[in-house]
Each structure stands twice: as structure tokens, then as C-alpha cells.
Amino acid sequence: MPKENDSYSFTIKDKEKKRVVLTVSLVLTLAGIGQSSAYGVEQSDLLKLYAHSRLINDEQYQCFHKLMTKESNWRVEARNGSHYGIGQMRNKRYAKLDGFSQVDWSIRYITKRYGSMCNGWRFFVDKGYH
User: Fold this and answer.
1) Which member of 4, 5, 62, 96 has the greatest number of CB atoms within 10 A?
2) Where is 83: in which H helix or E strand?
3) Which pLDDT does position 22 carry in this prediction?
4) Which of 64, 30, 36, 38 is nearest to 49 (CA)?
């Protein structure tokens, strides 16, 4: 039975997130980009790659990218009144999440509310909010 602090006790989702982050880091390293700000790799770049790994369809990713760019410009710490983070959610718990979890929450919210990222983007273009 794993103990609370046992490194093997994390969930499958945590394993998958770690795998994606490690894969993205490895790709950037092998490409000679590195993670130094001297090379221009920002947290938002890693978050965009992570989002693209979650949204395999490029059209859906492009719609999600447009939404998050309009909402927060991919800034984890963004705040607009009572709205927080990348997806500008009205949830203080969301504001305390790391960027990768904010991406997951945003994708889940848009999927449940609109059915797809592009439906969410079309709603945003029509109404000015989502």
C-alpha cells in the first residue's frame, strides 16, 4: 500500500501530466531551444504545447488558442475583477492552480458548455464573452 509521501502514489492523471511535460521539455531540449529565457521559451509556450497535446485536432486547438489569447494572453496570474487565470474562471480555487491544470479545467469547461473549442470561439466572437 503506497504511503502518502510515496512517489508511486500519484494518480494516473498526474503521471500523464508529468509525461507530457517531460516530453515537451525533451523536445525543446533536443531542438536546442532549452528552457532558458535567453532563448525565448516562456511558460506560455509550454502551456500552448500542453494544450495542443490535449486537443489533437489542430482546428480545435486553434480555436482554444484564440480564446485563451483573448481572455488572458495565456497568463496564469491574469485577473479581471472576479475572474482568474488563463481561462478567466470565476473560481478562487482555479486561481491557485498551476498553468497546466488551468488548461485542463478550461478545456473541460468549454467542452461541457459548448461541445467543442470552436463552438466556444464562435460564441465568444458573437457575444464577446464565453
Assistant:
1) 62
2) strand 83-84
3) 65
4) 64
Cβ-based burial of 130 (10 A; exposed 0-12, middle 13-18, buried ≥19): buried
pLDDT in tens, 49-104: 999 999 989 999 999 999 999 999 999 999 999 999 999 999 889 999 999 999 99
DSSP 99: H
> Which stretch of DSSP H or E encloses residue 79?
strand 79-80
pLDDT(10) > 50: no
- One-letter amino acid for residue 75 of the chain: R
CB 71 within 8 A of CB 127: no
